[in-house]
Fold:
Amino acid sequence: MIEFGKPTIYTKILIFAKFQLNLTSFKVATKRSKLAAAQEAALAGHGSNGGHLGRSRGHYLADKMGGPNSQAGQPPAGGGPTSLFILSEDNIIRKYTRFIIEWPPFEYAVLLTIIANCVVLALEEHLPHGDKTLLAQKLEKTEAYFLGIFCVEASLKILALGFVMHKHSYLRNIWNIMDFFVVVTG
Structure:
């Protein structure tokens, strides 16, 4: 019989798979950002005004945050017309959440949280009759913090990308489906 509140081997496998997923997506995102930096450097050699192609600094920052871009009015990749039928593409909350979820330190923090959660789950000992060692009791208290961090991550991604209705929304990515399942079952 599975007791709620105790991580089962199934939960541990899902969290390890989430770790592998985030590590893979982080590697892909790093390669994409290096490619984007190389493309921008190549364009900077052909433009004027310090390589920003005549744009002001504020507009350049808006490009990075998912605001107006130089791609003839196309929405940035990963966005839809609205998020949760409330936040439009131009909404400041949605722009900042997209900026946050694409920010490399945020990705590092999530990855480190997943690693720490894997370590905590690996250190747990399951003794007969529900007995717990002192270490297991202390480690059990950390699970609420991990769950809170994962819920914040999922919420930010849902706000930035939309939940399910748009082409690049949160639940249209297979990795995010697994992520959402881990958060909901946590």
User: Anything to note?
Assistant: Residues 9-44 form the longest helix (36 residues). The first strand starts at residue 82 and ends at 83. Residues 46-73 have pLDDT under 50 and may be disordered.
